[in-house]
Amino acid sequence: MGVNRTTVGSLVTDLASRGLVEERLPPDNPGPGRPSPLVGPQIDGLAVLAAEIATDSLAVAVVGLGGTIVVSQRVSRPRGFRPATDEIAQLGRLVRGCMAEVGADQRFFAAGISIPGLVRRPDGFVRLAPNLGWRDLPLADLVSQELGLDMPVLVGNDADLAALAEHTRGAGVGQADFICLWGEAGIGAGIIAGGRQLAGRDGYAGEVGHVTVNPDGRPCRCGSRGCWETEVGEEALLRGEGEALGREWTCMDSLLQAAAEGAPAATATLDRAGRWLGIGIAGLIDIFNPGALALGGVYARLYPYVRSAILAEVARRTVGTSQGPVDIGPVVLGDDGALLGAAELAFAPAIEDPTAVPRREARQPRPQPARTAVGRHTAAQQQGGEAEAQRTA
Amino acid sequence: MGVNRTTVGSLVTDLASRGLVEERLPPDNPGPGRPSPLVGPQIDGLAVLAAEIATDSLAVAVVGLGGTIVVSQRVSRPRGFRPATDEIAQLGRLVRGCMAEVGADQRFFAAGISIPGLVRRPDGFVRLAPNLGWRDLPLADLVSQELGLDMPVLVGNDADLAALAEHTRGAGVGQADFICLWGEAGIGAGIIAGGRQLAGRDGYAGEVGHVTVNPDGRPCRCGSRGCWETEVGEEALLRGEGEALGREWTCMDSLLQAAAEGAPAATATLDRAGRWLGIGIAGLIDIFNPGALALGGVYARLYPYVRSAILAEVARRTVGTSQGPVDIGPVVLGDDGALLGAAELAFAPAIEDPTAVPRREARQPRPQPARTAVGRHTAAQQQGGEAEAQRTA
Which residues of A touch B177 (CB under 8 A)? Predict the structure, then answer.
């Protein structure tokens, strides 16, 4: 980087005083002389609050720099309409629980919230979250009031945030052009194009769920017909197909169990799902020419059963001769992608401009917080400490 | 901009010495005192060569800064396979004709070429141009050899370049998120997302022509079925629909003539075209959330007949309640969009870093070149001189 040791030293000291980095001795001393210390994210330094309001659960986490989950909690929630006031109160209880866990001296930079809906990023206003039954809700303001904490609250779309997390430390690492397709009740896509998140004029880009894939297909509750979501959303999957049509599995678990047992009805349903997923994915590949595409949510669970049908449609329906292969597969961060993405969203201003983080007067050593972990975030924990750089830059 | 008059003056002098800008007196003197000169692009200063290899024509132009066409020529070419050697030789003859027109002291910075196909930008290698019958052709190198001129030759996809031109001085001005949909034998899209051209990993983004819109539709020569191009490309339009199916208009002119006379067969064909255009456009709007979408090529000519069908499908098939209206309409620069975009491509390195343009030792006044203009480029000519800034910045 063309700066000398003294300059690096004073920069590191400044960043450390803001709770951003810390120095550690390298695990192995490679040669003679005093070893250069490694600089890495300060695990018990600055943190953010992350929350995910999902269609069937609510999660809250305290996340440190580098994507390390310090403490987290996820609770199941009923599907369908949930009054926003109840949900925000529940979120407040979870946040207070997590904060008690990490102790009063934990410093927070900001809070990030993931939501399955259309969000206006600048003020965290939710225009529409159909699967929660919310419309025109000033979510950032309401959560700020509930928490009563002195920190900015940022809100993002779940698929966008999952894409951000997978791009930073999951299936999209090193891919400047990356698509993260997320299936729950609906379908969303988070898209990284040329290294930047696709936003669109109003921040609503990536609403692939209501793209028409079957113009004369089933009616969709959006008023259209044959939307991608109508053909391969969770509801369509449970509805069954062929002999299974109308048999209706009660949940994804029962469908996947039947598929694992080789039940023809389940196999037919998943073959059909793979075909429709592949048709839509092929279109996205022609449009975006990505290096990788990851499937998350329900689709990550389906993936082993739909993989070959997806790849067959992609091979048949893309301008394939002219493109290198696209790395298609399930997400790496499991179900916590959107939650970790909400943390990335909250950290973003600090990464952009570290001087926006206030200094601590003097750093006092304190005991390590208890690391309670609920849910699957092993991958993130493992990778959290790896973004290290030798201090002799 | 926080710089004083002296600094501005020396910058302007430097840019003028490179043939980039010139000073002019303002047309109206708004007040007392010495009027501040206006700084604008130097019309007879630096120029580029622009060429468009289209499916049924070949065009060459000398273009000045600001998109002013100094001289241009377009010749018709037969449709279908055209040997690349013949085409490049013809292009060479057109270039030499244009260069003779502008005189030997015209300075050129670079050449830009538009082609209806998949292009690898860094080395101007054409991977596939199906409607010309070309594959794996080092076009930039071959044109360089043919012209024997000491300037870089850059190659781009026609829809990408038309989008660039429309974004710079056409239907996409001021739109950070803009789609230019181009219909000829095939369909291509040039996409501006967040103010930057969407490229994809290999530069092939925007290949919307083979996105599936009708999974069980007609077979496409690409091996798939129901591609957008198969439903609403030029060939599909001339094939007719309903009563007109198989009647086959001989060319777009005869179809549009029949439509203008209100012939039911033509009307049915164009209604169908509008429906399929609308279905695909609605998908692009959900995916990109653009501020504007412009239709070019054949679709600009069809537009008056398909407008209402497009808007009806867009209203029905987008997540409309959550988005502001999208400005949908024909392109502004007519058929010269790709040619003007090729000029933008050639100028881009000079705009990015003006010091890349060599200085002239001393600028000698010379007679204005004759401005021969073939084809429709009035809009560009009118707008060419308007990108001016008051020198007292």
Answer: 199-201, 205
Model ipTM value: 0.81
Looking at beta carbons, which residues of chain A come within 8 Å of B176? 201
In the Cβ-directed half-sphere of A152, how many Cα atoms lie within 13 Å? 17
- Classify the C-alpha dihedral B366-B372-B375-B376 as positive or negative: positive
Measured in degrees and rounded to the nearest 5, phi and psi for residue A389 equal -130, 140
pTM (2 decimals)?
Answer: 0.82
| B210·A288 Cβ contact <8 A | no
| Closest-approach residue (CA) in chain B for A288 | B205
Residue A348 burial (10 A CB sphere; 0-12, 13-18, 19+): middle
**Chain A neighbors of B286, CB-CB under 8 A:** 207-208, 210-211
What does the CA dihedral A368, A369, A370, A375 come to, rounded to 10 degrees? -120
pLDDT tens digits, chain B, 393 residues: what are they? 677 888 888 888 877 777 777 787 777 666 677 777 787 777 667 899 999 999 889 999 999 988 889 999 999 998 888 899 999 999 999 999 999 998 888 888 999 999 998 898 889 999 888 889 999 999 999 999 999 988 999 999 999 999 999 999 999 999 999 999 999 888 999 999 999 999 999 888 999 999 999 998 889 888 899 999 999 998 888 887 655 566 668 888 899 999 999 998 899 999 999 999 999 999 999 999 999 999 999 999 999 999 999 999 999 998 755 557 899 999 999 989 999 999 999 999 887 777 777 776 554 555 454 444 444 333 334 343 333 333 333
Q: How many CB atoms lie within 10 A of CB A7?
A: 12
